Structure formats: C-alpha cells, structure tokens
C-alpha cells in the first residue's frame, strides 16, 4: 500500500479486564505511527469484562497494523476485531439529548426489552447504557438521542415511557441531557409522606380522638378535591385542646422515609442547599430539620395559648401557592436560579412547587401530581432522588465508607 493514503481502522478489544490492556494496544498502534491520528476511544467494564474500542487513521499498511494488533492482544489473552475502512462519523458528535432511567426491584429483561422497543419505534438511538445503582433498587441509565429535539418529541417520549413503566412494573424517568442536569444546587422536600413516613397531623388526630375525620379531609386535599387552606383549617380545629408538649413527643417519634438520611447526607457533601417546605407544623418539623442539618425550614405555626393548642394557625398558611412562593424565596436567598432547583413532593398541594423548580420529582405521589411532575418515583426509597440527579450508588457508598457510616439495610 502506498504511503500518504490515510485509512480508518476501528479496533474493538474484549475479554477479562486486567491491568495493561490499554498500554499493550496503544503500544502496537504507536509502532505503526498512528499515535497522532487517534480519533476516538471508548471503554466500558461490565462485571470484570472489558470492551475497548479505538478508532484511528493510518498511512501505513492497515493489514500489517491488523496483524500486529491481533498478535499483541493474543499475547495477553484478549479477543480483538479489526475493521479496516470503518466509517468516520465526524469529530463533533452531537451527543445524547436525553437521559432515561429505568428503576425497579428488579428490572426484568421483559421490562427493559419493552423500553428499548419503545425507543426504537420512535427512532430514538441508545448511545450508552450504564448501571447507576444496585441498591435499594436497580437503576439503569440510558443516554439516548432523539431524531428531532423539540417540545413535541419530548412530550411524546415521556408519554410513551409512562405506559411502558406501568406495564413493566418499573419506574422510568426522563430528563434532558447536558450540563443543566449536573448543575442543580438547591433541593427542597415536602415533609409528610415524603421526607417522613405518614402524616403528622394524623398522629396528632389520634391523640385527639378524631383520626378518621382528619384522614378523610387529608386524602381529599391530597387528591386535589378540597382547597388545602380550607382543609388545614378544618383539621387543625379538630386538634383544639391538645397539650403543647405532645408536639415534641410526636417530633421525637417521626420515622424518616427509607434513604432520607443518605439522601440529605450525600447532597450536603456535594454542596447542595437543602430544605423543607411543609404544609405541616413548624413546632414538629423544625427539630427534624435541625437534626438533619437542613438549611431552611418553612411550615405552618400552630397557635398555642396557656400550653394548649387553640385549633388555629398563625400567619399565612403554607398552601399550594405559598409552597411555590417559598421555593422562590429560598432560591433568591441562596442565589440559585430556579432552573437549578429541585422540588420533591407527593400531594396536589406540591403541584406549583414542583412546576416552579427546574426539576420536579413526584415521590409516591397522587395522580394529580404525577401528571405534572418531570419525574415520578413509585419506589419507597428517597435515595432514588440521588440517582435521578446522576449520582451513582458506588459514589454514595465510597463517600459513606470514607466517613465510616457505610451500611446496607436488608430489604424484605
């Protein structure tokens, strides 16, 4: 073959991962003067098996290059495929437009197959797949490219995958790819049935002997069937006469949602500003916020006279509109654009807050909220929020291990 003619060569190496695979391959390439014509490299290791792909151009005889590579790889027990004249797609690849997360306990082959088929039917290419987590759920991250990146395609993708998720009994979250996904800086959580299990007001109602009445009002409000402010006034009125000390008792017995401590701890490590905006009560929530080291806590304040609840709320009610306003104030206070804010909640009164944030996550939410949220999670583990933000389980556990707090609680 004459000198001066450049030929593209795609080399794909597979086999058991071990030190030296890259060095041996690139030494073989260097001997054939392609060290300055390296166009692309990608590598992935899956359960101890490596797949390494290298695209080069060479002015030397590509057949000689192929023979040299095959001999070098055989010496270290690796398989290799060499494609001479491989198509060069260009130096400026657009990259993925969206990230699709598939989460389940487990993620079945059937569910994943249906998701892949749905994407193919929309002419959406899967550029890359990686496992983000194996605990408390399996989470697979697919980086995908849509053929036409516009609002209509975005909506169609989300709608299609909602159906796939329901049939496959998995969660499927869709996000925009790019730098914005990694630029979130403030996360705000609802409290009842989000950061903690259950509804605080229902615990108080049990002591007041009106639990069933309060539960009915709460469920109607969460479904969006009853104005939240009116619902709150009705429920709080039923608590009149309870001793103030009961609030501290209830606060001490709050049970955090699984993964809540891990989530807050990890976000704080990464420099996120974290807080709560709750339709619950400040006298109960504030101690929890202090314990978790949250940066702000916004909630309703119960009126107390003579050490007894009066059945009234002081000041403006933290309702649906006020939750969104509270998020805006927090973002302004900490100098974070709304596009870099995340809101997590479960009820209809969280709708405005989630739609105001750059990323709204519905956590085990009522239908009214799931319909407007960017992402819906149905698994009862709050640390799934970390995976949605692109933080892997390995990264979480490496940091926990360094701090001596690593543990995995067995999941039934």
Please provide a written account of the structure.
The chain is of the alpha/beta class. It has 15 helices and 15 strands. The protein has a seven-stranded mixed sheet, with helices on both faces. A four-stranded antiparallel sheet has the order 2-3-1-4, with helices on one face. A four-stranded antiparallel sheet has the order 6-7-5-8, with helices on one face. A hairpin with a 2-residue loop joins strand 11 (296-305) and strand 12 (308-314). The radius of gyration is 27 Å and the shape is elongated.
SSE layout and pairings?
Elements: E1 7-16, H1 21-31, E2 38-46, E3 49-58, H2 62-75, E4 79-84, E5 98-104, H3 109-121, E6 125-133, E7 138-145, H4 151-168, E8 171-176, E9 186-189, H5 200-208, H6 211-222, H7 228-237, H8 245-252, H9 260-269, E10 273-281, H10 282-292, E11 296-305, E12 308-314, H11 320-334, E13 341-345, H12 351-356, E14 359-363, H13 367-370, E15 375-377, H14 384-388, H15 393-402
Parallel strand pairs: 9-10, 9-13, 10-11, 13-14, 14-15
Antiparallel strand pairs: 1-3, 1-4, 2-3, 5-7, 5-8, 6-7, 11-12
Helix content: 25-40%
Q: What is the overall shape?
A: elongated
What is the strand tally? 15
The residue-averaged pLDDT reads 92
Biggest sheet, in brief? 7 strands, mixed
- State the end-to-end CA separation: 65 Å
The radius of gyration is 27 Å
Strand and helix order: EHEEHEEHEEHEEHHHHHEHEEHEHEHEHH
Q: Helices and strands: which structural class?
A: alpha/beta
Low confidence ranges: none
Task: Give the spatial strand order of the biggest sheet.
Answer: 12-11-10-9-13-14-15
Q: Helix segment count?
A: 15
Q: Approximately how much beta-strand content do the residues carry?
A: 25-35%
């Amino acid at each position: 073959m004459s000198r001066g003619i450049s030929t593209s060569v795609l080399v794909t190496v597979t086999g058991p991962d071990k030190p030296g695979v890259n060095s041996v391959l690139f030494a073989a390439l260097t001997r054939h003067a392609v060290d300055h014509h390296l166009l692309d490299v990608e590598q992935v290791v899956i359960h101890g098996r490596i797949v390494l792909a290298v695209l080069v151009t060479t002015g030397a005889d590509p057949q000689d290059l192929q023979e040299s590579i095959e001999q070098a790889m055989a010496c270290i027990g690796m398989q290799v495929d060499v494609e001479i004249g491989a198509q060069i797609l260009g130096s400026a690849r657009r990259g993925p437009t969206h990230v699709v997360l598939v989460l389940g306990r487990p993620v079945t082959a059937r569910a994943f197959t249906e998701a892949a088929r749905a994407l193919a039917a929309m002419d959406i290419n899967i550029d890359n797949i990686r496992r983000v987590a194996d605990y408390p759920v399996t989470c697979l991250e697919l980086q995908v490219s849509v053929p036409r990146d516009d609002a209509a395609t975005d909506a169609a993708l989300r709608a299609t995958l909602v159906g796939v998720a329901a049939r496959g009994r998995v969660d499927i979250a869709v996000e925009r790819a790019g730098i914005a996904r990694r630029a979130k800086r403030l996360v705000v959580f609802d409290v009842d049935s989000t950061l903690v299990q259950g509804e605080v007001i229902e615990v108080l109602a049990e002591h007041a002997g009106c639990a069933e009445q309060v539960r009915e009002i709460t469920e109607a409000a969460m479904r969006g069937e009853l104005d939240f402010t009116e619902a709150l006034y009705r429920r709080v009125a039923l608590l009149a006469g309870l001793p103030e000390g009961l609030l501290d008792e209830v606060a001490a017995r709050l049970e955090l949602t699984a993964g809540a401590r891990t989530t807050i701890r990890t976000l704080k490590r990464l420099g996120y500003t974290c807080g709560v905006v709750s339709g619950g009560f400040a006298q109960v929530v504030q101690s929890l916020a202090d314990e978790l080291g949250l940066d702000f806590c916004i909630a309703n304040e119960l009126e107390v006279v003579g050490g007894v609840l009066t059945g009234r709320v002081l000041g403006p009610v933290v309702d649906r509109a006020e939750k969104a306003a509270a998020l805006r104030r927090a973002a302004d206070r900490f100098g974070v654009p709304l596009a870099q804010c995340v809101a997590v909640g479960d009820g209809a009164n969280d709708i405005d807050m989630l739609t105001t944030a750059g990323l709204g996550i519905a956590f085990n939410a009522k239908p009214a909220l799931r319909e407007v949220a960017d992402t819906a999670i149905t698994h009862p583990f709050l640390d799934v929020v970390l995976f949605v933000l692109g933080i892997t389980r390995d990264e979480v556990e490496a940091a926990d291990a360094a701090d001596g707090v690593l543990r995995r609680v067995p999941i039934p």
